[in-house]
Design goal:
2 strands; mainly alpha; two-stranded antiparallel sheet; single chain
Length: 283
């Protein structure tokens, strides 16, 4: 059995784990000399209240989201406002934002606060709108002037969908872009059903554009049309997931699919998201 750590080692471990920074000599001295029964609890409470806590633990989520300050294209051009999303993550952790709200804001912040594209956001809409920077954190080709606009559109859309499923559900779905997944029970049709959900991210018309299964992932070779949905393997046969009928629920107008999906993900009936997030924390 490993011997119990001495108090100097213990406080250094706590500081590095929770803030990524070493304790000041005065903090070490105070803890070593504090013989009260709640000395350790006071240290932990102090670290959790530190702004550096969000900076340290926010880094883990930013890595999952694929965050970078530059686009990662050939010129590696800067993303001038990417820092706003970075600061949102830090602030959310420091404010102890509930995880379900944290995830929904990032996947569908604009739809959550009923933001109308092209209008000036209200004070209450700004933070959720910044949170949706999650959908554009990964390297992209939007700054490459030699690439057709449709390439840029499709690239951004698929990366937003793929990153969301990987980060929130621990599910990699990229292989199904071109063919049925060889190792996991994910169909190519499932991939494009998910793509249809993210079509609220760029298509702001009242009636979103149709989504098709693409032969070998080539948008120049469209096949059968698909409706927004989730991979069959994630569905519950007893309570199948489905988008509301706009005729019966006019508040769901076909352009807010990401909000419906996000709320389904964080619902108590879907424990996978909670398990993935807890596993990330423990890892």
């Amino acid at each position: 059995m490993e011997p119990e750590a001495d108090r100097v080692t213990l406080i250094r471990r706590a500081y590095f784990e929770l803030t990524g920074l070493p304790p000041a000599p005065a903090d070490v001295k105070t803890f070593v000399e504090d013989k009260s029964p709640n000395a350790w609890e006071k240290v932990i409470d102090h670290l959790l209240a530190s702004r550096h806590y969000g900076e340290q633990w926010g880094r883990h989520w930013l890595d999952v989201a694929g965050y970078s300050d530059s686009r990662g294209d050939a010129g590696d051009s800067d993303r001038e406002v990417a820092w706003k999303y970075r600061d949102y993550v830090i602030h959310a952790l420091n404010e102890n934002k509930p995880i379900n709200r944290f995830l929904v804001e990032q996947m569908a912040g604009g739809q959550l606060v009923n933001y109308k594209p092209g209008t000036q956001p209200t004070a209450g809409q700004v933070e959720p709108l910044i949170a949706t920077g999650f959908l554009r954190t990964t390297a992209d080709i939007t700054d490459n002037q030699t690439i057709y606009e449709v390439d840029k559109y499709f690239d951004a859309q698929k990366k937003a969908m793929e990153t969301s499923l990987s980060a929130v559900m621990g599910l990699t779905i990229q292989c199904a872009r071109c063919h049925d997944h060889k190792f996991d029970p994910i169909l190519q049709r499932d991939y494009y059903k998910m793509m249809a959900v993210y079509q609220a991210a760029w298509d702001v018309s009242k009636t979103p554009s149709a989504t098709y299964v693409l032969a070998r992932g080539n948008y120049l070779s469209p096949g059968a049309e698909v409706q927004p949905g989730i991979p069959v393997v994630l569905d519950n046969p007893q309570h199948p997931f489905q988008f509301p009928d706009p005729a019966k629920h006019p508040e769901w107008n076909g352009t807010n699919g990401r909000l419906i999906l996000a709320k389904w993900m964080v619902s108590p009936e879907n424990p996978l998201v909670s398990r993935v997030f807890v596993n990330r924390v423990w890892q």
